[in-house]
Amino acid sequence: MPEIVTAALVREGRVLLVHRSPNRPVYPDVWDLPGGHIDAGETEMAALAREMREELGVRITTGSAVHLCRLEVGRGEESVRFSAWIVDEWEGTPTNAAPDEHDEIRWFRPEELPPLIHEPVRTAVVEAMRGHQPSVQRSALSSTHLMIMQFDHSSAEMVKFGDTYADSDYNRAEAERDAADYARQAAAKGLPLQYLLVRVQTVAAFGPEFDG
């Protein structure tokens, strides 16, 4: 399964996003977190460090990355696994070091955050930023759930759709039935829509005051 790793660089209450160039073959002309594919034989953290160096010209400080969320999109041979990390310490000044991939980079506050490629990632970033405490003493709470996403082939955009389910075999079957039903309704109306079941794991980071 292809794996993609991304990072939310956070500083002074803002997160850095990159704007994908309009000529990108996949997800063009949208804002998203910087990152890319994990190469064969590469660890997730090694890929994260490499991508930040190649795309932004920065070096991630050891131990500064905290896992934010993970989700899988599609099924079978079309499945892709996405992983996002919060990073609050790095060396160097972020610049657009990959102008062939992005035409702009910009800092955003949580309330200013534009739509991202995957809505669950955007939600996780906003929630983490609102409770984020940059420190080495971190504890974490994680939650896993299922979400139905709607993909529009005409615009190459995917947005949150439908209900959230607990991640159990029973609720997975129920969610799959709902997604299939939505897909049939869209096909009957001639709409270029696909409904995907996404498994989302969110990890929220807290500072030393967290006593859970």
Structure commentary:
There is one protein chain. The protein is of the alpha+beta class and 212 residues long. The chain is built from three helices and twelve strands. Residues 133-141 and 204-212 have low confidence and may be disordered.
Distance between the termini: 35 Å
**Average pLDDT taken over every residue:** 80
Q: How would you name the oligomeric state of the polypeptide chains in this document?
A: single chain
- Beta-strand share of residues: 35-45%
- Unreliably modeled segments: 133-141, 204-212
CATH topology: Nucleoside Triphosphate Pyrophosphohydrolase
CATH class (first level) name: Alpha Beta
H/E series: EEEEHEEEEEHEEHE
Query: Architecture in CATH?
Result: Alpha-Beta Complex
Number of domains: 1
| Total beta-strand segments | 12
Count of alpha/pi helices: 3
CATH superfamily: Nucleoside Triphosphate Pyrophosphohydrolase
Radius of gyration: 18 Å
Instruction: Outline the biggest β-sheet.
Output: 10 strands, mixed
User: Outline, from the CA principal axes?
Assistant: globular
What is the helix content?
10-25%
Judged by helices, strands and strand pairing, the structural class is alpha+beta
Summarize the structure.
Helices cover 21% and strands 41% of the residues. With 212 residues, it is an alpha+beta fold.
Which properties best describe this structure?
12 strands, Nucleoside Triphosphate Pyrophosphohydrolase, alpha+beta, two-stranded antiparallel sheet, ten-stranded mixed β-sheet, 212 residues, single chain, 41% strand
